[in-house]
Each structure stands twice: as structure tokens, then as C-alpha cells.
What does this fold into?
Amino acid sequence: MSADWSEAKTAIARLVAPLGIWMAAGWASYPYAMDFIVSRTGDEVDIGEIRSFSIAAAAACVTASVIAGAYWAMTKGKDAHPSPAQKRCPFCDEENPPAAETCALCDRPLAR
It folds into this structure.
């Protein structure tokens, strides 16, 4: 895994964490908005079905937000680039000792 991809995942997690909470709030309020609209228009709508879907969507948004927030918190202070004393595998992104000729994880040759 390259450093650019690692940085991109961290940036996406940083964006998704608060956005997921914002979306969950929207889904939580959706049944109330639909109830208001239906009461004004006189249409027949199964509000129970809308509430069930809304609860599931809000739970999914909160779950995604928590996972993204945890990932961002875990990677927040880490340097995306290896220390000069380590060799990074170009195939699996594993850090290896400077004297290593093959990766300890995937056993592929390391760049010299």
C-alpha cells in the first residue's frame, strides 16, 4: 500500500466521520418531515415503514461515522512515510529492516 493511498484513506475518514453524524440526524428527522407533509396534503403513506427505514439508515450512518472516526484517530499521528532506517515494501507497504533484501510479510524483493 503506497503512502498516497494511506493519506487518501485518512482524508476520507476525516471527512466521513462528521458527515455520517450529520446524515444520521437527517435520517432521524425524515419521518417527522414526511408526517408533516402527509398531514398537509392528505395523502396516504405508511409512516411506520418510513420510520423503520429511517432508523436503519440513521444507524448505518452512525456506524460508518464511528468506524471512520476510529480509523482517523488511529492514523492521526502516524507519519505516512517510513523512517530512514526502514525499507518500505512497494507491494504490501510493510516496513522492513534496512538490511533486508526481501519483504518479511510478502517475501517479494525490496528496492535497493
In short: Helices lie at 3-41, 47-75. The chain has a mean pLDDT of 86.
